[in-house]
Protein backbone atom coordinates (compact mmCIF):
# COMPACT_ATOMS: atom_id res chain seq x y z
CA UNK A 1 0.00 0.00 0.00
CA UNK A 2 1.39 3.36 -1.00
CA UNK A 3 1.07 6.64 0.85
CA UNK A 4 -1.44 9.38 -0.02
CA UNK A 5 -4.32 6.95 -0.54
CA UNK A 6 -6.77 8.91 1.61
CA UNK A 7 -6.51 12.14 -0.43
CA UNK A 8 -7.15 10.12 -3.57
CA UNK A 9 -10.25 8.58 -2.01
CA UNK A 10 -11.43 12.04 -0.99
CA UNK A 11 -10.98 13.23 -4.57
CA UNK A 12 -12.85 10.09 -5.67
CA UNK A 13 -15.85 11.05 -3.50
CA UNK A 14 -17.78 13.00 -6.18
CA UNK A 15 -17.49 10.03 -8.50
CA UNK A 16 -18.66 7.69 -5.73
CA UNK A 17 -21.73 9.86 -5.14
CA UNK A 18 -22.48 9.94 -8.86
CA UNK A 19 -22.00 6.17 -9.23
CA UNK A 20 -24.26 5.47 -6.26
CA UNK A 21 -27.02 7.65 -7.71
CA UNK A 22 -26.76 5.83 -11.04
CA UNK A 23 -26.43 2.30 -9.70
CA UNK A 24 -28.52 2.29 -6.52
CA UNK A 25 -31.75 4.10 -7.32
CA UNK A 26 -33.46 1.01 -8.76
CA UNK A 27 -32.67 -1.03 -5.64
CA UNK A 28 -33.78 1.92 -3.49
CA UNK A 29 -37.09 2.01 -5.39
CA UNK A 30 -37.59 -1.73 -4.82
CA UNK A 31 -36.71 -1.61 -1.11
CA UNK A 32 -38.90 1.46 -0.60
CA UNK A 33 -41.82 -0.41 -2.18
CA UNK A 34 -41.35 -3.26 0.28
CA UNK A 35 -41.18 -0.77 3.13
CA UNK A 36 -44.36 0.98 2.01
CA UNK A 37 -46.20 -2.34 1.89
CA UNK A 38 -45.50 -2.70 5.62
CA UNK A 39 -47.11 0.69 6.33
CA UNK A 40 -44.45 1.38 8.99
CA UNK A 41 -44.90 3.81 11.83
CA UNK A 42 -41.24 3.75 12.86
CA UNK A 43 -38.08 3.49 10.78
CA UNK A 44 -34.85 2.99 12.70
CA UNK A 45 -31.45 3.81 11.18
CA UNK A 46 -28.56 2.15 13.02
CA UNK A 47 -24.79 2.35 12.66
CA UNK A 48 -21.68 3.33 14.55
CA UNK A 49 -19.06 6.02 13.97
CA UNK A 50 -19.11 7.19 10.36
CA UNK A 51 -22.18 5.04 9.65
CA UNK A 52 -24.04 6.57 12.59
CA UNK A 53 -23.25 10.08 11.38
CA UNK A 54 -24.40 9.28 7.86
CA UNK A 55 -27.58 7.83 9.39
CA UNK A 56 -28.11 11.05 11.33
CA UNK A 57 -27.57 13.12 8.18
CA UNK A 58 -30.18 11.07 6.34
CA UNK A 59 -32.85 11.73 8.96
CA UNK A 60 -32.94 15.35 7.79
CA UNK A 61 -34.11 14.12 4.38
CA UNK A 62 -36.99 12.38 6.14
CA UNK A 63 -37.83 15.52 8.10
CA UNK A 64 -38.02 17.56 4.91
CA UNK A 65 -40.20 15.05 3.09
CA UNK A 66 -42.41 13.51 5.80
CA UNK A 67 -45.92 14.75 6.38
CA UNK A 68 -47.67 14.93 9.74
CA UNK A 69 -48.92 11.35 9.53
CA UNK A 70 -45.73 9.85 8.08
CA UNK A 71 -43.57 7.36 9.98
CA UNK A 72 -40.95 8.64 12.37
CA UNK A 73 -37.35 8.13 11.19
CA UNK A 74 -34.74 7.92 13.97
CA UNK A 75 -30.98 7.27 14.09
CA UNK A 76 -29.47 5.13 16.86
CA UNK A 77 -25.96 3.84 17.66
CA UNK A 78 -26.04 0.19 16.66
CA UNK A 79 -24.64 -1.01 20.00
CA UNK A 80 -27.25 0.95 21.94
CA UNK A 81 -30.00 -0.47 19.75
CA UNK A 82 -28.57 -3.98 20.19
CA UNK A 83 -28.60 -3.98 23.98
CA UNK A 84 -31.57 -1.66 24.55
CA UNK A 85 -33.78 -2.74 21.68
CA UNK A 86 -37.12 -0.94 21.62
CA UNK A 87 -40.29 -3.02 21.44
CA UNK A 88 -40.72 -3.80 17.75
CA UNK A 89 -43.81 -4.69 15.76
CA UNK A 90 -44.05 -6.31 12.32
CA UNK A 91 -44.62 -2.95 10.66
CA UNK A 92 -41.32 -1.45 11.85
CA UNK A 93 -38.29 -1.14 9.58
CA UNK A 94 -34.67 -1.32 10.77
CA UNK A 95 -32.05 0.00 8.35
CA UNK A 96 -28.49 -1.01 9.17
CA UNK A 97 -25.68 1.09 7.68
CA UNK A 98 -22.32 -0.68 7.65
CA UNK A 99 -19.86 0.29 4.92
CA UNK A 100 -17.83 -2.89 5.41
CA UNK A 101 -20.90 -5.07 5.86
CA UNK A 102 -19.20 -6.61 8.88
CA UNK A 103 -19.91 -4.35 11.85
CA UNK A 104 -20.77 -6.76 14.64
CA UNK A 105 -23.53 -4.75 16.35
CA UNK A 106 -25.48 -4.22 13.12
CA UNK A 107 -25.14 -7.92 12.32
CA UNK A 108 -26.19 -8.91 15.84
CA UNK A 109 -29.28 -6.70 15.64
CA UNK A 110 -30.32 -8.15 12.29
CA UNK A 111 -29.84 -11.70 13.56
CA UNK A 112 -31.76 -11.08 16.78
CA UNK A 113 -34.79 -9.44 15.13
CA UNK A 114 -34.97 -11.66 12.05
CA UNK A 115 -38.59 -12.38 11.28
CA UNK A 116 -39.89 -9.72 13.68
CA UNK A 117 -39.78 -6.81 11.23
CA UNK A 118 -38.23 -5.74 7.94
CA UNK A 119 -34.45 -5.23 7.83
CA UNK A 120 -32.64 -3.25 5.14
CA UNK A 121 -28.86 -3.43 4.84
CA UNK A 122 -26.81 -0.65 3.26
CA UNK A 123 -23.21 -1.57 2.54
CA UNK A 124 -20.26 -0.87 0.27
CA UNK A 125 -19.06 -4.47 0.03
CA UNK A 126 -20.87 -7.14 -2.03
CA UNK A 127 -20.72 -10.56 -0.41
CA UNK A 128 -20.18 -9.17 3.09
CA UNK A 129 -21.99 -10.68 6.07
CA UNK A 130 -24.85 -8.19 6.10
CA UNK A 131 -25.78 -9.22 2.56
CA UNK A 132 -26.62 -12.70 3.82
CA UNK A 133 -28.98 -11.71 6.61
CA UNK A 134 -30.77 -8.49 5.56
CA UNK A 135 -34.22 -8.77 3.99
CA UNK A 136 -33.48 -5.99 1.51
CA UNK A 137 -30.11 -4.65 0.31
CA UNK A 138 -28.67 -1.47 -1.13
CA UNK A 139 -25.07 -1.28 -2.31
CA UNK A 140 -23.28 2.04 -2.39
CA UNK A 141 -20.87 2.47 -5.29
CA UNK A 142 -17.60 4.10 -6.24
CA UNK A 143 -15.19 1.23 -5.87
CA UNK A 144 -13.50 -0.34 -2.82
CA UNK A 145 -11.85 1.60 -0.03
CA UNK A 146 -8.26 0.63 0.80
CA UNK A 147 -7.75 2.53 4.06
CA UNK A 148 -9.08 2.07 7.61
CA UNK A 149 -10.11 5.74 7.86
CA UNK A 150 -13.24 5.68 5.75
CA UNK A 151 -13.78 8.73 3.55
CA UNK A 152 -15.67 8.22 0.29
CA UNK A 153 -17.71 5.43 1.89
CA UNK A 154 -19.37 8.02 4.17
CA UNK A 155 -20.65 9.90 1.14
CA UNK A 156 -21.62 6.86 -0.91
CA UNK A 157 -23.52 5.04 1.86
CA UNK A 158 -25.21 8.32 2.81
CA UNK A 159 -26.24 8.83 -0.82
CA UNK A 160 -27.79 5.36 -0.78
CA UNK A 161 -29.81 6.20 2.35
CA UNK A 162 -30.90 9.52 0.82
CA UNK A 163 -32.16 7.62 -2.24
CA UNK A 164 -34.03 5.08 -0.11
CA UNK A 165 -35.81 7.74 1.92
CA UNK A 166 -36.54 9.88 -1.16
CA UNK A 167 -38.16 6.87 -2.82
CA UNK A 168 -40.07 5.97 0.34
CA UNK A 169 -41.44 9.46 0.94
CA UNK A 170 -42.12 10.18 -2.72
CA UNK A 171 -39.71 13.08 -3.26
CA UNK A 172 -40.37 15.13 -6.37
CA UNK A 173 -37.86 15.52 -9.18
CA UNK A 174 -36.32 18.67 -7.70
CA UNK A 175 -34.78 16.55 -4.93
CA UNK A 176 -33.27 14.13 -7.42
CA UNK A 177 -31.98 17.01 -9.53
CA UNK A 178 -30.32 18.61 -6.52
CA UNK A 179 -28.76 15.34 -5.43
CA UNK A 180 -27.45 14.85 -8.97
CA UNK A 181 -25.72 18.25 -8.75
CA UNK A 182 -23.97 17.31 -5.52
CA UNK A 183 -20.90 15.68 -7.14
CA UNK A 184 -20.06 18.91 -8.97
CA UNK A 185 -20.47 20.97 -5.80
CA UNK A 186 -18.33 18.55 -3.84
CA UNK A 187 -15.59 18.41 -6.47
CA UNK A 188 -15.42 22.21 -6.57
CA UNK A 189 -15.19 22.39 -2.76
CA UNK A 190 -12.40 19.78 -2.63
CA UNK A 191 -10.36 21.55 -5.31
CA UNK A 192 -10.72 24.91 -3.56
CA UNK A 193 -9.72 23.32 -0.26
CA UNK A 194 -6.52 21.99 -1.79
CA UNK A 195 -5.56 25.56 -2.67
CA UNK A 196 -6.37 27.02 0.73
CA UNK A 197 -5.25 24.26 3.09
CA UNK A 198 -1.47 24.88 3.02
CA UNK A 199 -1.98 28.25 4.69
CA UNK A 200 -4.74 26.99 7.00
CA UNK A 201 -2.71 24.02 8.21
CA UNK A 202 0.30 26.25 8.88
CA UNK A 203 -1.93 28.15 11.29
CA UNK A 204 -3.54 25.13 12.99
CA UNK A 205 -1.14 22.19 13.14
CA UNK A 206 0.23 23.07 16.59
CA UNK A 207 -3.16 22.84 18.32
CA UNK A 208 -4.11 19.71 20.25
CA UNK A 209 -7.80 20.55 20.74
CA UNK A 210 -10.58 21.25 18.25
CA UNK A 211 -14.32 21.91 18.48
CA UNK A 212 -16.62 21.43 15.49
CA UNK A 213 -20.21 22.65 15.41
CA UNK A 214 -23.16 23.04 13.05
CA UNK A 215 -26.94 22.81 12.88
CA UNK A 216 -29.15 20.39 11.01
CA UNK A 217 -27.26 18.30 8.49
CA UNK A 218 -24.16 20.36 9.23
CA UNK A 219 -24.31 18.97 12.78
CA UNK A 220 -23.93 15.44 11.37
CA UNK A 221 -21.05 16.71 9.23
CA UNK A 222 -19.46 18.32 12.31
CA UNK A 223 -19.51 14.97 14.11
CA UNK A 224 -17.93 13.28 11.10
CA UNK A 225 -15.34 16.05 10.75
CA UNK A 226 -14.33 15.78 14.39
CA UNK A 227 -14.07 11.98 14.09
CA UNK A 228 -11.76 12.31 11.09
CA UNK A 229 -9.56 14.84 12.90
CA UNK A 230 -9.24 12.42 15.84
CA UNK A 231 -8.53 9.40 13.67
CA UNK A 232 -6.07 11.09 11.33
CA UNK A 233 -4.37 13.93 13.21
CA UNK A 234 -4.52 12.18 16.62
CA UNK A 235 -5.78 15.15 18.57
CA UNK A 236 -8.75 15.80 20.80
CA UNK A 237 -11.70 16.88 18.66
CA UNK A 238 -15.39 17.18 19.55
CA UNK A 239 -18.47 17.71 17.41
CA UNK A 240 -21.42 19.64 18.83
CA UNK A 241 -24.81 20.82 17.69
CA UNK A 242 -24.86 24.62 17.33
CA UNK A 243 -27.01 25.30 20.38
CA UNK A 244 -25.09 22.77 22.49
CA UNK A 245 -21.84 24.51 21.55
CA UNK A 246 -23.11 27.45 23.59
CA UNK A 247 -23.06 25.38 26.78
CA UNK A 248 -20.36 22.77 27.54
CA UNK A 249 -17.76 23.54 24.85
CA UNK A 250 -18.12 27.28 25.46
CA UNK A 251 -16.58 26.81 28.90
CA UNK A 252 -13.23 25.64 27.51
CA UNK A 253 -12.87 27.38 24.14
CA UNK A 254 -9.97 29.82 24.16
CA UNK A 255 -6.59 30.61 22.70
CA UNK A 256 -5.38 27.01 23.01
CA UNK A 257 -7.95 25.54 20.55
CA UNK A 258 -9.26 25.90 17.05
CA UNK A 259 -12.93 25.71 16.14
CA UNK A 260 -14.63 24.62 12.94
CA UNK A 261 -17.97 26.17 12.06
CA UNK A 262 -20.01 24.25 9.45
CA UNK A 263 -23.02 25.76 7.69
CA UNK A 264 -25.72 24.57 5.29
CA UNK A 265 -26.73 27.75 3.48
CA UNK A 266 -30.15 27.95 5.15
CA UNK A 267 -31.91 29.77 7.97
CA UNK A 268 -30.11 27.78 10.67
CA UNK A 269 -26.80 29.31 9.65
CA UNK A 270 -27.35 32.52 11.56
CA UNK A 271 -27.18 30.80 14.93
CA UNK A 272 -24.08 28.88 13.84
CA UNK A 273 -22.53 32.12 12.63
CA UNK A 274 -23.25 33.73 16.00
CA UNK A 275 -21.42 30.86 17.65
CA UNK A 276 -18.52 31.35 15.26
CA UNK A 277 -18.28 35.01 16.20
CA UNK A 278 -18.22 34.09 19.87
CA UNK A 279 -15.37 31.62 19.42
CA UNK A 280 -13.30 34.38 17.86
CA UNK A 281 -14.15 36.70 20.74
CA UNK A 282 -12.97 34.02 23.15
CA UNK A 283 -9.60 33.85 21.39
CA UNK A 284 -9.91 30.61 19.39
CA UNK A 285 -8.78 30.23 15.80
CA UNK A 286 -11.70 29.54 13.51
CA UNK A 287 -12.16 27.65 10.26
CA UNK A 288 -15.50 28.25 8.57
CA UNK A 289 -16.68 25.54 6.14
CA UNK A 290 -19.78 26.50 4.20
CA UNK A 291 -21.18 28.74 1.48
CA UNK A 292 -20.27 32.05 3.14
CA UNK A 293 -17.58 33.45 5.44
CA UNK A 294 -18.74 35.74 8.23
CA UNK A 295 -15.67 36.05 10.46
CA UNK A 296 -12.16 37.32 9.91
CA UNK A 297 -10.10 34.14 10.15
CA UNK A 298 -9.85 30.99 7.97
CA UNK A 299 -12.32 29.77 5.36
CA UNK A 300 -13.00 26.70 3.21
CA UNK A 301 -15.86 27.36 0.74
CA UNK A 302 -18.53 24.66 0.34
CA UNK A 303 -21.36 25.53 -2.09
CA UNK A 304 -24.87 25.23 -0.69
CA UNK A 305 -27.34 22.63 -1.89
CA UNK A 306 -30.88 23.66 -2.76
CA UNK A 307 -32.03 21.26 -0.05
CA UNK A 308 -29.93 21.48 3.10
CA UNK A 309 -30.31 17.75 3.78
CA UNK A 310 -27.66 17.13 1.12
CA UNK A 311 -25.10 19.56 2.56
CA UNK A 312 -23.03 17.02 4.49
CA UNK A 313 -22.13 15.31 1.21
CA UNK A 314 -20.04 18.40 0.46
CA UNK A 315 -19.04 19.47 3.98
CA UNK A 316 -17.68 16.11 5.18
CA UNK A 317 -15.13 15.50 2.39
CA UNK A 318 -13.69 19.01 2.86
CA UNK A 319 -13.37 18.38 6.60
CA UNK A 320 -11.73 14.99 5.92
CA UNK A 321 -9.17 16.58 3.63
CA UNK A 322 -8.36 19.18 6.27
CA UNK A 323 -7.89 16.40 8.82
CA UNK A 324 -5.55 14.52 6.51
CA UNK A 325 -3.39 17.54 5.72
CA UNK A 326 -3.24 18.42 9.41
CA UNK A 327 -2.22 14.84 10.24
CA UNK A 328 0.64 14.93 7.79
CA UNK A 329 1.83 18.27 9.14
CA UNK A 330 1.82 16.75 12.64
CA UNK A 331 3.94 13.79 11.49
CA UNK A 332 1.21 11.12 11.29
CA UNK A 333 0.50 8.67 8.47
CA UNK A 334 -3.29 8.16 8.39
CA UNK A 335 -3.05 5.55 5.63
CA UNK A 336 -1.30 3.32 8.20
CA UNK A 337 -2.71 4.45 11.56
CA UNK A 338 -1.05 3.31 14.76
CA UNK A 339 -4.44 2.77 16.37
CA UNK A 340 -5.51 -0.03 14.01
CA UNK A 341 -4.63 -2.73 16.55
CA UNK A 342 -6.64 -0.95 19.24
CA UNK A 343 -9.74 -1.25 17.09
CA UNK A 344 -9.07 -4.88 16.23
CA UNK A 345 -8.47 -5.76 19.90
CA UNK A 346 -12.04 -4.60 20.61
CA UNK A 347 -13.45 -6.89 17.97
CA UNK A 348 -13.69 -4.22 15.27
CA UNK A 349 -12.18 -6.44 12.60
CA UNK A 350 -14.39 -4.90 9.93
CA UNK A 351 -12.06 -1.92 9.42
CA UNK A 352 -11.64 -1.03 5.77
CA UNK A 353 -8.16 -1.63 4.39
CA UNK A 354 -7.70 -4.99 6.07
Total beta strand runs: 10
Strand content: 15-25%
Low-confidence spans: none
Helix and strand composition category: alpha/beta
Helix content: 40-55%
**Whole-Å distance between the termini?**
11 Å
Mean pLDDT across every amino acid position: 93
Q: Calculate Rg over CA atoms.
A: 19 Å
What is the CATH C level class of the largest domain, in words?
A: Alpha Beta
CATH homologous superfamily of the largest domain - what is it? Glucose-6-phosphate isomerase like protein, domain 1
Q: How are the strands of the biggest sheet laid out side by side?
A: 2-1-3-4-5
CATH architecture of the largest domain: 3-Layer(aba) Sandwich
Helix tally equals 12
Please indicate the count of domains.
2
Global outline: globular
Key descriptive features of the protein:
354 residues, Rossmann fold, 5-stranded parallel beta sheet, 12 helices, 10 strands, 50% helix
Give me the secondary-structure topology.
Layout: H1 5-38, E1 42-47, H2 50-65, E2 72-77, H3 78-83, E3 93-97, H4 104-112, E4 118-123, H5 130-133, E5 136-139, H6 152-169, H7 173-204, E6 209-214, H8 217-233, E7 236-241, H9 242-245, E8 258-262, H10 269-281, E9 285-290, E10 298-301, H11 312-329, H12 340-345
Parallel strand pairs: 1-2, 1-3, 3-4, 4-5, 6-7, 6-8, 8-9, 9-10
Helix pairs in contact: 1-6, 1-7, 1-11, 2-6, 2-8, 6-11, 7-11, 8-11
Question: How would you portray this structure in words?
Answer:
The protein has 354 residues and is an alpha/beta fold. The chain has helices spanning 5-38, 50-65, 78-83, 104-112, 130-133, 152-169, 173-204, 217-233, 242-245, 269-281, 312-329, 340-345; strands at residues 42-47, 72-77, 93-97, 118-123, 136-139, 209-214, 236-241, 258-262, 285-290, 298-301. It folds into 2 domains: 5-176, Rossmann fold, CATH 3.40.50.10490; 184-329, Rossmann fold (3-Layer(aba) Sandwich). α6 (152-169) runs antiparallel to α11 (312-329). The radius of gyration is 19 Å and the shape is globular.
